[in-house]
């Protein structure tokens, strides 16, 4: 297992190099000049323009800029935002808990519903339950996030009025950031009574509900379909027929003998889905005005904030790479034969 881990870690290095090149180079292909964005076209005298470009380090050759970017990134120094003039790492860490909270609950929503629903569809194969689950999964997988999010807002927020349209919590609450997770921080309000903490918690849950559903629907549909397919394949194996011949109960066959083997490909697809949740959060956060890194990156692209965009792309890519590595390790733990093949 140790050699398997070392091989996976060594495979990350060329990927990180490629990501750094893309993060650095791709943004420079976007039309627009960040220097003009800062000083304005009317006040952009040649002297002021040259001075600002030198201050930002954009007057150096591309290779020099890239080397400086990589050397600083290794030290977690991503420079200063061109627009806010704050260190990029501070802005990232202040917004990342919001994205992480949304991503975790979207993942839990997709996994906790997708796996049981997929199992149910498999054991009720060719019944109305199976057809209903697969039909709903196909619809859920086919809906774009921005369209599905608007439908949720129109129905639950505008028509029924039971959920807020945007934000993380009602504006009357000023919650000190302790953990960064509002569902926890609402219970840590200093000097607040239990009723006030409960109301703040309920407000944060109501704000979290629609973004969670919007972001978790496509992963849920994917997990349900993969679980059903994998479970059907396992239920047709010889050892399952042997277990039935021995007189074992159906729940024991499904939940103990079949489920562990059926989850092997599901674990892999969950790792890929976690990456899609990070990218899907960009649309979801923009739609629901969720103050996370997705919305932050969109604002940075429109303002040509090079340091923010580079840091956002690099950090999120590194997180996705390491999540996939953890999924590979989990896959090898569930299926020991993978350690021998690799």
Could you characterize the architecture of this molecule?
With 342 residues, the chain is an all-alpha fold. The protein folds into 2 domains: 17-74, no CATH class; 93-303, MetI-like (MetI-like fold, Orthogonal Bundle). Helices cover 75% and strands 0% of the residues. The chain is built from 14 helices and no strands. It has helices spanning 2-26, 34-39, 46-55, 62-74, 88-123, 128-142, 145-159, 182-185, 194-235, 238-245, 250-288, 293-302, 306-334, 337-341. Helix 5 packs antiparallel against helix 6, helix 5 (88-123) packs antiparallel against helix 11 (250-288) and helix 11 (250-288) packs parallel to helix 12 (293-302). The protein is globular, with a radius of gyration of 24 Å. The protein starts with a helix and ends with a helix. The mean pLDDT is 81.
Summary, kept brief:
Helices cover 75% and strands 0% of the residues. It is mostly helical and 342 residues long. It has two domains: 17-74, no CATH class; 93-303, MetI-like (MetI-like fold), CATH 1.10.3720.10.
């Amino acid at each position: 297992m140790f050699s398997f881990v070392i091989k996976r870690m060594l495979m990350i290095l060329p990927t990180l190099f490629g990501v750094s090149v893309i993060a650095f180079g791709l943004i420079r292909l976007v039309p627009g000049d960040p220097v003009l964005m800062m000083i304005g076209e009317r006040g952009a005298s040649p002297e002021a323009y040259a001075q600002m470009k030198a201050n930002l380090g954009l007057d150096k050759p591309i290779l020099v800029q890239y080397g400086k970017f990589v050397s600083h990134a290794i030290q977690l120094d991503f420079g200063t935002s061109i627009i806010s003039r704050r260190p990029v790492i501070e802005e990232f860490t202040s917004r990342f808990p919001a994205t992480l909270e949304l991503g975790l609950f979207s993942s839990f929503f997709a996994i906790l519903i997708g796996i049981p629903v997929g199992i149910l569809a498999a054991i009720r194969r060719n019944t109305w339950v199976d057809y209903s689950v697969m039909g709903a999964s196909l619809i859920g997988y086919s809906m774009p996030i921005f369209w599905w999010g608007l439908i949720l807002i129109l129905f639950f927020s505008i028509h029924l009025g039971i959920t807020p349209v945007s934000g993380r919590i009602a504006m009357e609450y000023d919650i000190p950031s302790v953990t960064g997770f509002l569902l926890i921080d609402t219970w840590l309000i200093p000097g607040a009574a239990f009723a006030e903490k409960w109301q703040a918690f309920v407000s944060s849950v109501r704000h979290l509900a629609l973004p969670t559903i919007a972001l978790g629907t496509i992963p849920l549909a994917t997990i349900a379909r993969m679980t059903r397919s994998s479970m059907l394949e396992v239920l047709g194996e010889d050892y399952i027929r042997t277990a039935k011949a021995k007189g074992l109960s159906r729940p024991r066959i499904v939940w103990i003998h079949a489920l562990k083997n059926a989850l092997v490909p599901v674990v892999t697809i969950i790792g890929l889905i976690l990456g899609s949740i990070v990218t899907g959060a960009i649309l979801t956060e923009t739609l629901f005005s969720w103050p996370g890194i997705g919305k932050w990156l969109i604002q940075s692209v429109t303002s040509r904030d090079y340091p923010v965009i580079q840091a956002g792309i690099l950090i999120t890519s590194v997180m996705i790479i390491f999540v996939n590595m953890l999924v590979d390790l989990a896959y090898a733990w569930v299926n020991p034969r993978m350690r021998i093949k690799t």
